[in-house]
Amino acid sequence: GTKPNESSDESKWVMLRRFYLYDRVGGVTGAETGTFLNTTPKFLRYAKNISLRVELKMNNDAEINLPMLFIEYRSRKEGSLGTADVEFLVEYTMDLDNFWTAVMIIFIVLTIYSAGYSFLKIYVFIKAHPRDYVELFSEYSKVVIANTVMIILKTWAHLMFWFMWAISAYWFITFKLQTEAFILLPPQNTMEESYLPFQVLFGFTLGIYFFNLIKMIIDQSSASIFFVDWEPAQKVLVRGSLVDKVSVWRTLFVANEFDELQTWRYVNLETSLFLLIFILTGLKWENLAYSQTAMDTDQLSSPLNSVLLFFLSTFFYLLITLPQIVFPQLLARWLPTKLNTLNDLCQVANISVFILDTPFHGYFIEGISEAGQAEGDAEDLRLALDGITNHPRPTGLAGGDPNVLKSFEMYPSKDLVEMLTRMYNGEDIIPQRVPEEMEQFGV
After folding, report:
1. DSSP 281-306
2. Which one of 97, 258, 278, 306 is most buried, counting C-beta atoms within 10 A?
3. Dihedral-angle region of residue 413 (phi above 0 means left; psi in -120 to 50 means alpha; beta otherwise)
């Protein structure tokens, strides 16, 4: 009644020296001796899956232990006899105890490093978000806890991705490029011991990246954005009388350009996925993930290995996306990116931008025109463009230093956050004390 050969513990297996491809005699019942061949069997037992395992010796390269043949039998009743598909598989493997010991040590070291690095980032985050914000925002604790959890998970996920990538790269390079047999992949029928840990780790990492993506979308859609127009008021004739007014069209134009940036990315996802599918499927390079030492893109009889496929997919995707990120940065001096263009647009339009992705953290784009105004003729525009690089005015947080960038990551003070929040809610405010940041703007 027991089935020792189905156990994952190979020491409990029962080895046999004989086997059969099909058995009709065992399905014959009630027949007299010698009449088996003339009697229709009630059922037929046959070999459904046949696997030949060849194990490499650990102390001698290019030498193997005694091969083992694994056979899985199936049965068919009398009424369903006919043709059947039979699978034959040859697997080459080796003892991986030392490999798994090294992997476990590296995993523990990376996890400890991830914890230490995460706590350092959490410390910096909490120091930048002091508790005096609590009286302003009831969701202070919720924001701090959510960011703390995501810092821990995201740091660990980043390390685990490169950890899995390094493991898969090691197996692909050493297995596929070897000239003599010294390393072999784990067999597919040892899924629980060999491949399940990798797949579970991949699932956890993918899940963390998915929830981080959801959080990024929530943060981006709930950010508070302020457009500060520095244009001096001009006399405009309205209903027969002159009044001081500032045109809103420049602000709307900058806001529209900013809105278009919300879906812009350095990496074109559609093009990248199309090229990836073309390389893996169209050029048949996914066949390199089969458990065969040959670097052959033809369809092979060996099984597809998930670890090798992970390496191929990520390697080609990185190969496709990295140039899309690096080249625009290298060519930004001659072909400005949309981010650089927005900065220049804000400065020409005389409009600065406050972006608060949380109530306690944000970014600032200094858009104070070097010409002092944006609404003018072509000569004023030329002077403004010339002043961006040659004649910076001593205004804004940069103080007119031409060597200082005009975009900043900022941790606003409590007073500034309170004033911006009341402005965002449409309240008319006359602050008792102007925040220090606003004083630098001359407010």
Report:
1. IIS-GGGGGBS-SS---S--SSPBPH
2. 258
3. beta
> What sign results for the dihedral spanned by CA atoms 124, 130, 131, 135?
negative
User: In terms of C-beta density within 10 A (0-12 exposed, 13-18 middle, 19 or more buried), how is residue 190 classed?
Assistant: middle
Location of structure tokens 């806001």:
255
Q: How is 131-200 classified by DSSP, letter by letter?
A: GGGTTT-TTHHHHHHHHHHHHHHHHHHHHHHHHHHHHHHHHHHHHHS-SS----PPPGGGIIIIIHHHHH
The Cα–Cα gap between 435 and 423 comes to 14
- Identity of the residue numbered 442: G
- For 426-439, b where at least 16 C-beta lie within 10 A, e where not — what string? eeeeeeeeebebbe
Bridge partners (DSSP) of residue 74 are 46
Q: Which residues of 251-267 are buried (b: 16+ CB within 10 A; e: fewer)?
A: beebeeebeeeeeeeee
Greater model confidence, 63 or 104: 104
**Which pTM does this prediction carry?**
0.74
Flag whether pLDDT at 166 surpasses 90.
Answer: yes
In percent, the amount of the chain with pLDDT more than 90 equals 24
Would you place residue 209 in the very low, low, confident or very high pLDDT band (cuts 50, 70, 90)? very high
3-state secondary structure of 59: coil
Q: Report the sign of the C-alpha dihedral through residues 300, 302, 303, 307, in that order.
A: negative
Number of helices (H) and strands (E) in the chain: give both, helices first: 10, 10
Instruction: Tell me the β-bridge partners of 53.
Output: 68, 91
